User: Fold this.
Amino acid sequence: MRKIRVAVIMGGRTAEHAISLATGSMVLSQIDRRKYAVTPVIISRAGRWSVPTASGRRGRFLPVGAALSRLLKSRIDCVFIAMHGPYGEDGTIQGMMEMLDLPYTGSDVCASALAMDKAKAKEVYHAWKIPTPPSLIIEDRDWRQHRAACLSRIRRQIGYPLVLKPVRLGSSVGIFICKNPRALMKKLPSSLAYGGRVLVEKFTRGREVTCAVLDTPGGEAPIALPPTEIIPRTRAYFDYHAKYTPGASIEITPARIGPAMTRKVQNLALKVHVALGCSGMSRTDLIMKGKRLYVLETNTIPGMTRTSLLPQAARAHGLNFPQLLDRIISVAMESHRKRRLYNRVREGGRTR
Assistant:
């Protein structure tokens, strides 16, 4: 039987380039080679693509057009997107795959863009009555021209302590906790450097919990995996260092929160998954304050490094890493077949 040809795309023009390479490398090492023929595709920090030749040689980095032509000639069956942050998790590359009519893993263009933009995701949370900490947006231009007004607005609407988050970035890059105006004045320019827009969010002290959701082949309802409790050991919160440095955090799966709260976390993660229109997989981060839950953000392409939480949760659910990858790819190919069918019906019914 012919193997399914999968291209694993990693890297990219993003601050999360290194984490993407780590995720891609892990996928390459864990995917079932008896079932899949794998082509590693690396996007440089400059945006040039490295696609192996027909003989398997890596070759030089190519412009996007030439690289895509080579990729299409290899008759890829599915693209595994192992990218994080801008150009990979924000709908950009998903749109490119749609134009090429290639199946790809994870959420579609709309859901990817919504989840990546923390401001838009908050709007969806509010519309669906999903509890989330109060927040506001500060833009670079306003901060430069109306600093006193920005400080006053932040003090009145959010207060201290607060959290600064670049609007369109993940992996806890550019995130800072500010306990007072002096810290805010020092850290806000650093956050604004990542895209020019920052979400200023009320800091909510509590237990940090994350919960992954997986779609199910065959069109059945998505399932929520066992939640994970996160206890940073070397940082005040789950920042970049705590996420990706082995031993920097204690991660307990299943979370020690009792059956009732576990169900509540899982139901909320499922609600977020549906509200944003996610598919394939997602992972929602929450804060548990007493018996109340607050959604912080949702990742449509959770990390899959050796310290990542999605594989850990899948393992607690009974799925090893190769089985997790197989499920993600199967759902991607099934979703593509459905989209093709819908598109044919839509195009056939168009008035000319």
Notes: Residues 114-130+205-330 form a domain with the D-amino Acid Aminotransferase; Chain A, domain 1 fold (CATH 3.30.470.20).
